[in-house]
């Protein structure tokens, strides 16, 4: 009695599976054949033929149209999850190989972060990284979260560090630190002595907030809208240092994460906890799904430790930052 052996697939020597799989991944990521062709620097008909050949070979439909955008079918999403890491590893093979050859004493690391993250969160981490890997060229791109994710998608940076409310499907966000959201005001403000603050207590007083595209504005708007409490914004300005300065001048109140409060604010700013309404603000690492992190990027991520910053509590009326 003979036993049959499992059949091993045979592929022609000249068969190139990378091109159609790369075209497929770019089409899923960009939602359009024309945009995929631009990203790959090939013609649109060439991408279409590669996708059609892939569907014939696998015997499934890989895309369906949702409005003006192409979206992967269930089978297409499964294939995307399987092949994206392979395609990206092959695409980054030369760079990764050269980095491995040079070792951790050479190379480049590019990180996107907004100004508050660069100012308050990253100094200790960057200091530790520079001490351990002095030959790595480190570049910090000052960009708000939305622009940082665009840089990630364009492979202009290796990773992003910051805060996110909603994580897009093509990105991965790993929260590491959490900071309480507090109300800040100048000493003597009417809100400083109210025993139990509510959002209605804040409603009559104008807020100073970062621009609308930033996470803080979206978070504040979400909380006030969910509680059906009206609010007003007196001033939009970027940077926590500027916001704190304007608050001390009596130009308004603000809602900030405790990461931006230091001993320098003692006596100049009164803080009150808003943990009843606002969840802790998370900060962490954002990477593109399936992207192979370089040794430099992995070494930097390993230095981002949860215990680097001690939590602070703000729960007493009239409490000032320690």
- Beta percentage is 15-25%
Query: What profile does the largest beta sheet have?
Result: 5 strands, mixed
How large, in whole angstroms, is the Cα Rg? 25 Å
> What is the distance, rounded to the nearest whole angstrom, between the alpha carbons of the first and last residues?
83 Å
Rounded average pLDDT = 85
Provide the succession of SSEs.
HHHEEHHEHEHEEEHEHEHEEEH
Total domain modules: 3
Question: Considering DSSP H and I runs of 4 or more, what fraction of the residues is helical?
Answer: 25-40%
CATH class of the largest domain: Alpha Beta
Quick one: CATH superfamily of the largest domain? Periplasmic binding protein-like II
Strand adjacency order, main sheet: 4-3-5-12-6
What is the CATH architecture annotation of the largest domain? 3-Layer(aba) Sandwich
CATH fold-level topology of the largest domain: D-Maltodextrin-Binding Protein, domain 2
Cα shape: globular
Count the strands?
Answer: 12
Q: Which regions are unreliable across 5 or more consecutive residues at pLDDT < 50?
A: 7-14, 310-322
Structural class: alpha/beta
Number of helices: 11
């Amino acid at each position: 009695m003979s036993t049959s052996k499992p059949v091993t697939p045979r592929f022609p020597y000249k068969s190139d599976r990378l091109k159609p799989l790369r075209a497929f991944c770019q089409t899923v990521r960009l939602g359009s054949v024309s945009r995929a062709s631009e990203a790959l620097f090939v013609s649109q008909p060439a991408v279409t033929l590669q996708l059609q050949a892939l569907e014939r070979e696998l015997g499934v439909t890989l895309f369906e149209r949702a409005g003006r955008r192409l979206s992967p079918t269930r089978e297409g999403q499964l294939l995307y999850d399987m092949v994206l890491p392979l395609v990206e590893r092959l695409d980054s093979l030369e760079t990764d190989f050269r980095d491995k050859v040079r070792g951790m004493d050479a190379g480049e690391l590019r990180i996107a972060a907004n100004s508050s993250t660069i100012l308050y969160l990253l100094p200790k981490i960057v200091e530790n990284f520079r001490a351990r890997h002095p030959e790595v060229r480190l570049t910090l791109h000052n960009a708000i979260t939305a622009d940082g994710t665009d840089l990630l998608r364009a492979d202009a940076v290796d990773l992003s560090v910051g805060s996110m409310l909603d994580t897009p499907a093509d990105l991965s966000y790993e929260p590491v630190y959490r900071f309480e959201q507090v109300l800040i005001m100048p000493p003597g403000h009417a809100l400083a002595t109210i025993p139990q603050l509510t959002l209605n207590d804040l409603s009559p007083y104008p807020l100073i907030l970062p621009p609308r595209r930033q996470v803080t504005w979206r978070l504040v708007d979400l909380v006030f809208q969910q509680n059906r409490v009206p609010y007003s914004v007196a001033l939009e300005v970027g940077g926590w240092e500027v916001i704190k300065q304007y608050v001390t001048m009596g130009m308004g109140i603000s809602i900030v994460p405790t990461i931006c409060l230091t001993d320098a604010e003692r006596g100049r700013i009164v803080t009150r906890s808003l943990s009843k309404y606002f969840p802790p603000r998370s900060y962490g690492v954002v990477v593109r799904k399936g992207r192979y992190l370089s040794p430099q990027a992995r070494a930097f991520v390993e230095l981002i430790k949860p215990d680097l910053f001690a939590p602070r509590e703000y729960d007493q009326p009239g409490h000032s930052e320690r």
